[in-house]
Design a protein that fits this description.
The chain is mainly alpha-helical. The protein contains twelve helices and two strands.
């Protein structure tokens, strides 16, 4: 019971921090909107992919992008908590490191999922109309993606000493994950070397699953997308718990 209360307390703290930083909420949504309405709208006036307007085509990829960036960069809060000694107080409390990690992960997932839901709710403005089933399927895919990426960010944050070092390492990670995911282009007819990289990128399967749920276009069967995301989430979550157990 105590461990469950600890998980809730850690989650609630992260949620309150997020809701108090209103500028953070606005900026986290503003960038994806620029991609959709400026970049997508500009190319969408002249480009169609598989008979779909380019702005509509990249919409699922940009939603995945918002989750990717907010989830991985969430790990920097571990470093700030360490600097102001909040993390030290949590780690010396009579709580398991597993509970601490779960509370942090749930807090990060909540933050990124709020942003993702906002992006899904404005889908009609892009010309994408989601049924209740499509909306729930998109939420499931985004949650699996968020769970794995928040865990990844926390692993990196637990190993770094400074926010500057964290940002440098994460930038080398998130941009390749995004650009190789097929968020901005179709995966068929790519050069062999590029196809090989996109197939190894776990975010590819999140983008593809979202395209299936939102606009009915896919490269892989939906069950493959879900299976890869579930395995990726399980692996990163397990690695995260092990990393937190060794963290000082």
């Amino acid at each position: 019971m105590r461990q469950a209360e600890a998980v809730y307390a850690l989650w609630f703290r992260e949620f309150k921090v997020f809701t108090r930083e209103r500028s953070r909420i606005v900026t986290s949504i503003f960038t994806p909107l620029l991609w959709i309405f400026v970049f997508g709208g500009g190319l969408g006036s002249t480009v169609n992919i598989e008979g779909i307007n380019y702005q509509v085509y990249i919409y699922p990829g940009i939603v995945a992008m918002s989750v990717l960036f907010s989830s991985v960069f969430y790990g920097v809060y571990i470093i700030w908590d360490r600097k102001i000694d909040i993390l030290k107080e949590v780690l010396v409390a009579p709580l398991s490191r597993y509970s601490v990690f779960v509370g942090k992960v749930l807090g990060g997932c909540t933050d990124s999922m709020i942003q993702a839901i906002v992006m899904l709710l404005i889908s009609f403005a892009v010309g994408v109309y989601l049924s209740p089933l499509s909306f729930l399927l998109a939420i499931l895919i985004l949650f699996l993606l968020s769970l794995s990426l928040v865990s990844t960010g926390l692993i990196i944050g637990s190993l770094m000493e400074s926010p500057e070092g964290f940002n440098m390492v994460v930038s080398f990670l998130v941009f390749p994950l995004f650009f190789f995911s097929g968020a901005l282009y179709p995966l068929n007819n790519l050069p062999m070397w590029l196809s090989a990289i996109t197939y190894m990128d776990p975010v590819t399967y999140g983008v593809d699953g979202l395209r299936t749920a939102t606009i009915g276009v896919s490269q892989f069967p939906l069950h493959i997308d879900l299976a890869v995301l579930a395995v990726f989430a399980a692996v990163m979550f397990t690695m995260g718990t092990k990393t937190f157990e060794r963290m000082k």
